[in-house]
Amino acid sequence: MDFVSRYIIGMPSQISHILHGLSCLKALPVERQESLSDGAFMLGCQGPDIFYHNQRTRPSGLVYGTRLHRSGWGKFCAELARQGLRLGWTQEHPGYRFLAGWSLHAFLDRELHPFVVWNAGWSEPSDPATHSLARAHAFFERLLDVLFYQTLTHENLFHCPWMAELAEVESFPEDFWVAMAQSLWRTYPGPYGLDEIPQRVRNAITDTVGFLRHTDPRDETAARDAALSDRADAGLHKRLPRIAFFHPVILPPADYLNRQHTPWRHPVTGKERTESAEDLWQSATLQGQESIRCLANLWQAPAEEREKLLNTWESVLGNGSLNLPGEDGSPHGPQFCHPLDFAHLMELQRRYFLKD
Ligand SMILES: [Zn+2]
C-alpha cells in the first residue's frame, strides 16, 4: 500500500488550524506573538489530528485521536499545562509553544465541523450511493484551507512555506514526552501503560510531519502521483481517492464559504443555520483569544493560584466533543447534509495534474 492510501480517516486540515492559531495569538502583546509562532506552535495547532496521522509507524497512538476528539479535551489540556508547570517550563520551552497551539485546535474544530459535514456529507461502505463522498470531508477542508489562506494573507496557498517549518521529534526535549505521556495516561487511563506512551506520541509526530511534508502545497509531485494512481484505479471500484489529500488547484466559481448566508442545517440537530465559514471562523477566534489569554495568565500566576486558574482554563476549553457536538456537547452521528459534487471537483484536480 502506498503512502497516501494508508490514510483511512478523514483528517481536518492543517493550514486552517495554523491560520486560526496565529489569529488567536493576536490577543497577546506583539513580542509574545512573535516568540510563540514557531514550528512547535504550528505543529501544536494540529491538535489531536497528529494521532489520526499516525497510520504508518508502529506502535501507533491512533486511539488517542478518537478519544481526544470525543471528550475530555479541557481536562487533557489542563493536565498538560499542570505537567509543564511542574517541570518548570518557561514560555520559551518548545513544550509550552506546542501546548499554546494545541489548545486552540478545538475551537476551530467545534465551530467548523458542522459546516464541513453539511457540505461534504459522509460515505458509508455499505451504501454505494455515498461512495462518491469518500474522503470528501478531507477534501472540503483542504478547499477551505485554500480560501482562508487567500482571504487572510492575500497570498496564494501554493507558496505557503509552513509545512517545511513544522517542528520534528528532535525539536522537543525529553521532558516534553514525559508531560505528554503523563497527561494522556491520566486523562484516558486504559489503552496503554505509561511507559509505552512516549514512543506512540513520537511516532504520531513522525507520521504527521511526514504526511504534511508529503502533501506540501508547494510541491506538485505527490499530487500528480496521486492523480495518476487514482486514474489507474478507475474502474476497479476502489472507494478512496488519493487526490482528496491535496489542496485543490482548480475551483469552479461557487459560494463555498457561504458568504451569501444561504440557510444550511446542523448535521446532527437539523437546526437551520445561516453563518458563513468566516462567521464560524470569527467565533472560533474570539474563543481562542480568551483561552490563550488564560494560558498566559496561568504561566505568570503565583504557584498558589495555579490550580484555580487551571480549573478556569479547563472550563474555557470545554470537555465536549470536537467533532459534531449536539446541544449537550456530547458526540453524535450526523443525519443531515447537502454535499457538493465531489466526484467532479476531484476529477478537475486530476485533469489539471495530468494535463488532460
Ligand atoms: Zn481535529
Q: Largest sheet, order of strands side by side?
A: 1-2
Rg, alpha carbons: 20 Å
Q: Which structural class matches the secondary elements?
A: mainly alpha
- Bulk shape: globular
Helix content: 40-55%
Give a quick account of the main beta sheet: strands, pairing sense, barrel closure: 2 strands, antiparallel
| Total strand segments | 2
Mean pLDDT: 93
What's the structural domain tally? 1
Q: What separation lies between the terminal Cα atoms?
A: 26 Å
Bound molecules: zinc ion
**Total number of helical segments?**
16
Outline:
With 356 residues, the chain is mostly helical. The chain has helices at residues 14-25, 30-36, 39-44, 49-52, 62-70, 73-86, 94-102, 105-120, 136-153, 162-165, 174-187, 197-214, 221-233, 277-300, 306-317, 342-354, and strands spanning 264-265, 272-273.
Describe, in plain words, how this protein is organized in 3D.
This protein has about 350 residues and is mainly alpha-helical. The protein has helices at about 15-25, 30-35, 40-45, 50, 60-70, 75-85, 95-100, 105-120, 135-155, 160-165, 175-185, 195-215, 220-235, 275-300, 305-315, 340-355; strands at about 265, 270-275. A hairpin with a 6-residue loop joins strand 1 and strand 2. It has one domain. The two termini are about 25 Å apart. Zinc ion binds near residues 12, 47, 48, 69 and 109.
